[in-house]
Structure formats: C-alpha cells, structure tokens
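re: that chain from earlier
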Amino acid sequence: MRGAWILLFAALPALADISGTVINRTTGKPQPGVFVHLTQMGQGGMAPGGSARTGEDGRFTIKTPNTGAMLLQAVYRGVSYSRAVEANAANVQIDVFDAAPRVPDVRVTQHMILVEGDGKEWVVNETILFENSTSVTWNDPEQGTLQFTAPASAGENVRVRATSPGSVPVEREPRRVRAGLFALDFPVKPGGETRFDISYKFPAQENTVLQGRILHPPGPVRLVVPEGIRAEGAALKDLGQEPTTRAAIFDIVGKEYEIRLSGTGALPQTPVASESEEDGPRIERILPPGYERWWKIALALLAAFLALSFWAQWIKSGAAGNRSAR
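^ sequence. v structure.
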C-alpha cells in the first residue's frame, strides 16, 4: 500500500511558484487588488495557467504545473499589462499605470497614408504612431483613442491592427460611429510607441476623390503615392520624389482634405537602388505590416503578408532640409 502511494505522488506534476510584485508607475508604489493571470504559451496555443490577486504589498504568487514559456497579465483599471516569464520565476515585476480618458500630452509622431490602385479599386493603408511620454495610460472606451475616416464605399473592407509598446500586433474591430467615421477602443500606454495600421479599399471611378479628416492629436501627416498615380488637392504640399521607390510624397496641411486620384501604380516590393540619399525624402519599410491589397489572402498566408508590407516615410524631407521624428 505504501508503495502505491509513492507511485501516485510520483505521477503528480510538481507545482511551480511564480511570484512577483505589481508596481504602479504613476504613483511609484506597489499596487494592491490587481488580478494577475497566467497563460501557458505552447504549440497547441494558449491555455489558462492560474491566477491570483495582489495583496496590500502588491505581491502575488501563482502555483502552476506548467513549464516553459508563459505570459503574465495584470489587469488594472480596465487595461491589461503583460510580461513573459518562465516556470519558477521569482521577483517578477509588472508595471501598471493609472488610466484616464483624456491625456493631453499624447502626441502623434507620424501618420502615413499610402494609396495604391490597379484601375479597378483603390487600396489605402494608413499607419499612425502615437507616443505617450506621460505616466498615465490613455484609455477611452466610450469615445475610443483612435478615430478615423474612410470612404462609405469601402463598406466592410475596413481593417485595423494595433500594437502596444514592446508587444505584438493584434487585430481589432473598429466601431462604425456613422457612415465614413470609425472609432477604436485600444489603450495608448506610456513607455514607447503605440501603432495603428488601418487598411481599406474601394472601387475605382473615372473621377475618384478621396476625402478625409484628421481626428487624432497634432502631428505630421504624409501622403505617399507610387509612380504612375497622380494626386492633386489644395491640402497637399509637394515634398518631392522618394529616390528608391520613385514614390511622390506630400504633406497634408490642415484637418480636412480632398485628393483627386488618377492613374495606376503600386510600391515595388524591392526598392530600386538610388545613387544618392540626398535626391529627396526617404521611405522606410516598417514592420510589422499593416494590411495591403489582397488582404484576404495575406491574412491566410504569412509569407505574402510580410512580402507586401506597408511602407512608411523615413524621417527626412529633402524639401524642408531637416528630419522629422518618427
């Protein structure tokens, strides 16, 4: 009988303690009452690994039979903060922040609009980079931290991917406020750039006019059109041609724009080599990509998704003669 008990205990998985502290970086103090969840990461996907609530000293301990890579998530004031850990990790620190629906010091460091067309449809990819240099997370579930416009003719072909600082991109469904206006509830956290990739497409017409409004905090807005496409509008300020792709780059001046589009063209997957870097403003390929034409295929095929990634402007304007912060 004793031998049977020994065999039974030997068959049970050993529990590992994962412990740490949740620190509120807004106050600089340990944060009590925060729920911390553990998720097992493996080839079979994600599985719950346990949870705990921080005590008055901000500390938590989770016992789990899991091994290998895991993810800790602390949920504070409606916002999730993550930290990758291994089994038996001790003294793990998870930083959280107070959250507010208005954080005036959040700014946009770059907003790029890429327009491509094949004569049958227009495909628009936008990348917007937010920087939060404060110690408060901007979180506005009611109004959304991101608001943007898209043509009503885009229908349901509006996609958004969001990336927190130091995290991986996640797909988010934008909320249609009304025809042509969308909002997205996604927190803009301190500690780096929060990136939004927007993609939509709409049918080409003989006289296409792309109308839009800039609804985010102040920041540079650039339009990029490949060689073969002509863009005209009172809100456009010509910055010149990017030498490696031969794409035309414009400043969008003001909060509203109407851009007349004609022609066909797409950015080359492999830029053409340029003899000089001083020939005009530069474009840099920024990963992870947004969505691009043929997005249904791209979502299923990772290789195609990476190969057709969105381009954003390099922080250099030959026309202005100085650099813009990305």
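The CA atoms of residues 13 and 65 lie 6 Å apart.
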